[in-house]
Specification:
Elements (H helix, E strand, L loop, with lengths): L1 E2 L3 E2 L9 H11 L2 E5 L5 H12 L3 E7 L13 E4 L2 H22 L5 H22 L3 E7 L4 E6 L16 E5 L2 E5 L5 E7 L5 E4 L12 E4 L1
Parallel strand pairs: 3-4, 4-5
Antiparallel strand pairs: 1-2, 1-3, 6-7, 6-12, 8-9, 9-10, 10-11, 11-12
Length: 216
């Protein structure tokens, strides 16, 4: 079992009671990744703790594995190869990260409703700024390499389209550019001027950090 923040509970070198350390990791983790292959009793026990603590959980399993009936109703990331698992996990982690960022202060209903209205308006503003428009994407800030990119109304990238920048969407107040497999390649937030976008540098994105977009 892995904890959000990059810790794998069964591979940490610790002294004393290992179980106490695992509980501490679960308590501190933002989310949990649990490999449910092989029906490891320890994993299912720790998974139960995580769910009891209302932690966000990602379950993973090879497609050929038999899934216990009591977790079949949960969201499970199935995979065949390590590369496929990496890609799918990055997408799931991105969704959870956005959810945690956007809803952490929203345990109180009045905040949640206000945040939903704010995000809805922000999404509309971002869509209006991008759809049908031409931007300069600085995709390697270190070497100052850039290209023209256009955001089509149907959610595809027009000019500048390649395997890394194939389509686009707006999710929870952020622009996400997807690769040709539908995975998040880069994620941006709108600048104060409403005409520029800065890379979020999130860990689940695959692109070079520090990228930015400027309206032409």
């Amino acid at each position: 079992m892995a904890m959000g923040g990059g810790v794998r509970g069964d591979e940490e070198a610790v002294s004393g009671d290992l179980f106490k350390h695992i509980i501490q990791y679960i308590l501190r983790a933002r989310f949990i990744i649990a490999n449910i292959e092989g029906r490891n009793a320890n994993v299912f026990y720790e998974l139960g703790l995580a769910q009891a603590l209302d932690k966000a959980v990602i379950l993973v399993s090879k497609e050929s594995s038999e899934i216990p009936f009591d977790v079949r109703g949960n969201r499970i990331v199935f995979y065949q190869t390590a590369d496929e698992l990496r890609t799918r996990l990055m997408n799931e982690i991105g969704k959870i990260s956005l959810s945690l960022q956007d809803h952490s202060p929203s345990k109180r209903p009045e905040f949640g409703e206000a945040n939903r209205r704010i995000l809805s308006e922000l999404d509309k503003k971002i869509m209006s700024a991008l759809a049908g428009k031409k931007f300069t994407l600085v995709y390697n800030p270190e070497t100052k390499r850039e290209k023209i990119i256009t955001f089509e109304f149907d959610g595809t990238i027009g000019e500048g389209r390649n395997r890394n920048e194939s389509s686009w969407r707006v999710v929870a107040g952020r622009l996400e550019i997807l690769d040709d497999r539908g995975s998040v390649h880069s994620r941006f937030v709108m600048g104060p001027d409403g005409h520029s976008f800065n890379h979020t540098n999130d860990a689940d994105t695959q692109s070079i950090r520090g990228q930015f977009l400027m309206a032409n």
